[in-house]
Design goal:
Six copies of one chain form a homohexamer. Chain A is α/β, with parallel strands linked by helices. Chain A has eleven helices and eight strands. In chain A, strands 3-2-1-4-5-7-6 form a seven-stranded mixed sheet, with helices on both faces. Chains in contact: A-B, A-C, A-D, A-F, B-C, B-E, B-F, C-D, C-E, D-E, D-F, E-F. Strand 6 of chain C pairs parallel with strand 8 of chain D.
C-alpha cells in the first residue's frame, strides 16, 4: 500500500476533529489517504479499545481513507522514545506518503503535542539511509483496522493498485524497509488559539466529516438513562460548526480546516493567490 | 489601460530592488503589469528627476511593464494625507488591477513605510462606491513615462487591447471614475529582517531584474573621476545576488523575492503545497 | 448625562458587531452605557445618513444604551487630527465614563484602526488639566440621536437622573468642561485573527445583540427584487453566531465577545480565576 | 487533607521566591494552601537535605500553608518521566486542589522548566479516569514535612477538618485514588523577562514572604568568618523588593507577584476590571 | 557646538527618568552630550514653562550635559508634521551627534510615542543631501536654556572647544545647514513592559540621576499644606530605584537603564560578551 | 587542556557551517578554541566514521582549533538523557571554557535541536558543586581526534601551556573533576529564519572557513562517475557565500555568522555601539 497523504494523530477520533474534511476532499480528488492512530483509546472514559476500533473503521470508510492503522502505544502515555519513533518510521517506510499531517506542537492534551514531536522525528528517522528499520517487528498489522486494510489491499475503489504493492516490494528488501522521507509535513490544530498558515475549504465535505465524528457512538452519544441524547449531539454539532465556520471566514469560504506549516510558501502566480485582502 | 498587477513604491528604482523579478515573471505569463512611483526622485543625491524618468522608462521596458507612472508627491516627503490618497485612488480606478504590490509596512526609509499605509488606504478609498474621484484632476499623465504609456495605448505586444479601453469608458462616467478595489494586496520587502509569507521563484528572471536596476545609471555607476566603476557594480551585484539567493534557499529554489500577506492562505490541494519540509 | 461605559466606534452598526452584547449585559447590571459613532454613515453603499440615524436609535434602544451620539467626521475619512481629538475629548468630558471601549488597533477598514488611535489620544487629551475644551463648540448635539438623548434627559428607564445632570454642571464651568480621563480603556475586535486578553459571556444577550444588528434594515436586508431576503439574513446569522460561539469556546461559555487590554491583569483571589485550564 | 491551592516547585525555597506572598494571601482569605517540593535540596552548595527540611517547615509555617511535602526526585535531575508523573499525580489525587501553581515553562535552571512540564502532565494524568494510581506506593509521606502534616491532620487552625479526611476516604478506594483534575493551572515566574498575564497584590504579605525566604538560614546567611552577614541579607532584600515593586508598578500596587495563564480571561463586569489604562 | 550624543524627548524631565544615568556616564567618559526637549511643559499640572526651564537647566548641570534646548512644539500636542520634522532636523544638523536617543515607539503618553517617530523621521530628513534646512528660522535659540548654552559656548568644563565651532561653521553655509545623519539611533523606555536589547550599568550614576529628577521641584515636591513632602519623595525614590534595580538584575549589575535598538548587534570578541548566561 | 571557547555540535561538519569563521577569528586573536562533536557521523550517507574523523581533524587544523573531540553518542539519535549530559559535562569540566557555542534550539534535524538542550543542561550540570563527575569514565579520549589533541598537549602554537595543565590538575582531584560552569552560552544557527541577536564579522576568515567545510571530501565532493565535481562545489559555494553575505549585510560588513543569546546585552559606551541605524 502506497499512500499520498498520511494523517498521524494520538487518538482515534482526533483526525475526525482536526483534518477529516481535508482528508475526504483529497480522497475525492483521487489521492490515497491514510490515518495512523498512535494509540487505541483504552483510556477513554467511555467504551473499550475494541469499540473504538470498530468506530474508527466506520469513520475511515466515511472519510474514504484507503488505510487506517493503530499502534500499540499506551493511550495517555505517548512518549517521544526511540522505540516509538521506530514504530512510526516503519509505517512511514511502508506507506511512503508524500504529505504527512501531524497534530499542532502545542495543545491541552500531552498526547497531542507529544505526537507532534514524535511524528516529526519519525519522519526524519524514516529518511535516514543508514537507519535500518526491520520489517518483521512491525506491530501495525496486529492493531490495524483489518477490514479497511484488507479491502484496500484487495483493490476496491479507494485502494492502491497492484503496481504499488510491487513497487513497495521492489523498494524494500526482504527484511528491512527502504528509506522514505515525506516531502511535506503540515500541522492540524483543534481550536487552539493560533493563527493558521492556511485553511482548506471543506464546505462540500463538512457534513460527511461531521458524520465521521458521529461514528464514534461510544464517545458522542450518552447512554445513561436520564440524559437526552439529542441536545448533547446538537451541542457538539454547534461547536464543530462554529469552528469550521470561523476558519472558513478567515479564508473567505463557508467551512474550513486550519493548518500550519513551518516553511515559507512558494507562489507561482500572483493572480492566483486566493483570499480577498480588503 | 486595464492592468492585472500594479506595484506601488515610493521611489523610482524601488520595485526593481524588491519585486522586479516577479513583475517580469508575471508579464512573461501574459499578465499586464504596471508600476506607480509615488515620487519622481528629485531628492536623490545623484541625477535629476528627468534623468530618473528616462532610467525608469528603460527599466520598465526591461521588466516588460505595460504601464509606468509617477505621482507628484515630493521625494523624501511621502505623507499619508487625504490628497495623496485621492491621487493614488485615481490611478487605481483607472488601471483597475486585481493585485497590488505595496512596500512592507516597516523599513528604514520613512517614504517606504508611509507608502505602505498610503497605498493600503488608497486601495480602500478607491473601492468606496460613494467616494467621488474626479477624472480631470489626475496628475499622473503629467509625470508618467509617456513613451511607455503611449506604446501601451497604441496597442503593442504588452499593452491593453481596445476592449479594455472601452470597458474603462463604460465603467467610468465622463467626469468621475468608477469604484475599484483590488482583490489582493501583498507586500514586498527589501532586506528587512522579517520572515516572508511566501517567496516567488525568479531564477529565470534574475539577470533581467538585475539589468533593470542597472538601468538607473545615475544611481549605480560612479561618474566621479578617481572612482572605479566596476568594483562598485560588482559590490551591488554581490548584495543583490546574496539577497535573492537567501530567499531562494527558503523556498528551495535558486533565486527568489520575498512577500508578505496579512490574510491566511487557502490551499486547494495538499499534494501541491510546495517547499520541502524536511 | 454621566455614563459608566462609553463605546466609541467609526460607524453606526460597528458596536453592534463587536461589543453590543457586552453593552447590553452591562446595562442590565444597572450601568449607564453609551455609544459614540464618529461618523454618520453617509458613504455606506445602501441607505442615507438619515436612515442610519433612525436605525442606530432603534439599535441603541435594543441594547438599552442610555446615550448615543454621532460626530460630524466624514465617513470613510476618519483622521487622527487635533480637531477630531478635540471633538471626541469634548464628549468624554461631558459623559465622563469610567470605561471606554475602542476598536482594536489593527483592522481591514482604515476608519476602524484610525478610530482606535484617535479615541485613545482623545482620552489622553480629555484628562489634561490645562487643556481647555470649549463647551459651546460641541457638535455632538447637532448630529446626535435626539430621540434617545432627549428621552434620556427626560428621565426614562435607561436615562440618567437629575442628580447626574447637576453633577455635570458642578464639575464643568459655564464655558469649558472639566478634565476627565477614563480609568480603563479596552479594545473590541471584529473577527481579526488576534488572541483576546479576555472574553465576556454574552450567552443571555446574544439574541438581543443580533436584533440590534438587524435593526440596520438598510444594511442587512436586501430590498432589490429577485433577491431572497431570508437566506441573506441566515448567512449573517450564521457568521455572527459562529464568531460568538468561537470566542465562547475560548472562555468556556456558549457565546462571548472578545476584548484586548494593554495592561497586565490584577487578580485578587486565585480561586476565582475563571476558565478551565485542562 | 483536601487543599484549595497547591504550589509545585522543583526546590525547597522556590515558592518562597515566586509565589509565597500569594500563597499567604490566599491562606489569610481562609483557603487551604499547600506546597509540593519535587526535590529535597541535597545538591545545594550549602546545607544538607535535613537542614532544608527544617527550614522548609518553618517557611511553610510563616506562609500559613496547610500542607508541605517533598518528593524523592533527585535534586538537579528533575526529569519528565512516567514515574515522576505518577508521583506527582498521586499527590494531586490525595490533595485534590482546585488551583495548581507551576513554575514558568522557561528558565535558567533545567529543574525549573522541567518541573513545569512535569507538573502539567501530572495534572493531566491525575484526571484520567482509567489511570490507576496506587495509594500504597506513595512516597510523599516518607519525605514530607511531618511536623506540618501532623499538625494539619490534628486539626490546628490552618488544617483541614475531619470532614475533609472522610471525603477523601469516600472518594478514594482502599488501594487506589480517585481521579482529580485541577480546574486552574497558573505559572509563577522568578525574574525571567516575560510579560505576566496578571499580578497579585502582595503589599500586605510582602514582609512575611521575605521572612519565609529568610527562614532558609543555610542558604541566605553566610556562616563563614570574615563575611558580614547583614550586607548579604540587605542585597537579597534589595533584589527581592525591587522585583516585587516592579511587578507592583505594572498592576498599580506597591508589591506584587507575577503569573501567567495559557487561557484567555473571562470578565464578568467591565466596571470591575482593575489596573488604570492611562 | 558639536555633540557626541543627543537625547530627544517630549517633555522636560523625560530624559531624567529614562536615560539620565547613561547621559551622565557618557559625559563622565568625556563625551559631549545634549538634551532636546520637544516641548516646554506648559501643560503640566504643576508649575509654569518658566519654572520648568529653570529646573531643566539645573538637571542638565547635574547630568553634565553640554547642551540643552527646547522646541516650541505645544505640550500635549506633539505631532509628526513636516514643520516639526524640520525643527528637529535643524537641531540635528547644528549639533551633529553620532548617537541619538529617542523615546520607545510605544507608550502611555501620545507625546512620547509620537516623539519617537518624529525624532526618527527628522534624523532621516537631516541626512538628505538635497533637503535644504534654513539656518535662520531655527527656533531653538529662542526657547533653549541659555544659561547652559552660553556656559557651554564660553568653554567651561563640559563645553565644546572652539575647534568644533569652526568645524560647524565650515560644514554649514551662511544660510543653510549641511546634511547630517546620526550613525546610531537607540530607544530609551520608561517602565513599559518590553524586553530591552541592552542595558547600561548606571550604578555609579544612580544617585546623581535621581538628583537630576529631584531638580524638578515643581513636579516632585508637594507644596500644598496638609501634604507631607518626604513620603512622596520616598515613594518616587522607591519606584525609580526598583526600576533601575530590575534592569540592573537583567544585566548582572546593581542599577541599569534599558534601551532598544532595531539593528542586530555586531560582536567582535566572544570572550568579551558580557552578562552571565547561567 | 584549558579552553577559552568550546563549540558543541551534533555532527562533524556542523560547526564548519555555522560558526567556523568565528572560531578561526577567535583563534587568530590568541584564544584557545575547541570543538566537541556529539556523534561520529556513522549515519551519513557518504563515507564512514573513520573518514569523517580524518576530515574533522583537517578542518580543525584549518580553523586553528586547539582541541577537537567526539563523543560516542549514536548519530541520528542524540537524546537528552542523563548519561549524555554526564558525558558532555565531563568534557566541560576538563576543558573549562568561558564561552560555549551551542546549536540553535530550533531546526530541521532533531539531532541539532536536541544537541542544543543537551548542551545547555550539561553546562548547568557541570557547574553543580555536589554533582560528582568521574574522571575515569570519560569516553572522550577514546573517540577524540588524537592527532590534534596530542599536538595540542605537546605545546604547539595553538596549544595550552603547561601552566594550564597544572591548573587543571590542581582544580581536579585524582578521580573526579572540579565543577565548572561556562560564563557565556551563545547559539549558532544555520539558515533557519530567525533574527540573530548579533553577528560576527568573518570577512577575513570566510575563505578559510569555506576550506574547512571542503575538508569534508566525502561529503562535499561527488565521487560517482558521470557527475561533475565542480558545479556541485560551486553550488555549495554559492549557498554558503549568500548566507554569510546576507548576515553580513545585517551587520554592515561583507561576511558574517549569526548568533543568538538569551540574555539582554550590556553596553558600556554608547559611542561604540556598532551597526549603522539609518
Amino acid at each position: 500500500m502506497i499512500l499520498d497523504i498520511l494523517a498521524i494523530a494520538a487518538h482515534r477520533d482526533d483526525v475526525e476533529q482536526t483534518c477529516g474534511g481535508t482528508l475526504l476532499k483529497m480522497a475525492e480528488r483521487g489521492y490515497r489517504t491514510g490515518i495512523l492512530d498512535l494509540t487505541r483509546g483504552e483510556m477513554g472514559t467511555r467504551g473499550s479499545a475494541e469499540d473504538r476500533e470498530r468506530e474508527a473503521a466506520e469513520a475511515a470508510r466515511i472519510l474514504k481513507a484507503a488505510w487506517r492503522g493503530a499502534l500499540d502505544i499506551p493511550d495517555g502515555r505517548v512518549e517521544n522514545t526511540w522505540e516509538n519513533k521506530l514504530k512510526v518510521a516503519r509505517v512511514l517506510r511502508e506507506l511512503r506518503p508524500r504529505v504527512v499531517i501531524l497534530p499542532y506542537w502545542k495543545g491541552r492534551h500531552p498526547d497531542h503535542y507529544t505526537a507532534s514531536t514524535l511524528g516529526y522525528e519519525a519522519c526524519f528517522l524514516a529518511g535516514l539511509k543508514k537507519a535500518v528499520v526491520s520489517r518483521q517487528s512491525s506491530v501495525v498489522s496486529e492493531i490495524g483496522a483489518p477490514s479497511i486494510q484488507q479491502s484496500a489491499c484487495s483493490g476496491d475503489a479507494i485502494a492502491s493498485t497492484g503496481e504499488d504493492a510491487r513497487l513497495s516490494t521492489d523498494i524494500n528488501s526482504a527484511d528491512t524497509l527502504a528509506p522514505h522521507r515525506p516531502f511535506k509535513i503540515i500541522y492540524a490544530t483543534l481550536y487552539y488559539d493560533v493563527r493558521p498558515t492556511f485553511v482548506v475549504d471543506i464546505t462540500d465535505q463538512f457534513e460527511a466529516r461531521f458524520q465521521s465524528l458521529m461514528a464514534y457512538k461510544t464517545q458522542f452519544s450518552d447512554q445513561e438513562a436520564g440524559k437526552d441524547l439529542f441536545p448533547a449531539k446538537r451541542e457538539i454539532r454547534n461547536r464543530v460548526e462554529a469552528m469550521a465556520r470561523f476558519y472558513g471566514m478567515l479564508g473567505g469560504v463557508e467551512f474550513a480546516e486550519p493548518f500550519l506549516q513551518k516553511e515559507v510558501g512558494l507562489v507561482d502566480d500572483l493572480m492566483m493567490v486566493p483570499v480577498k485582502s480588503i
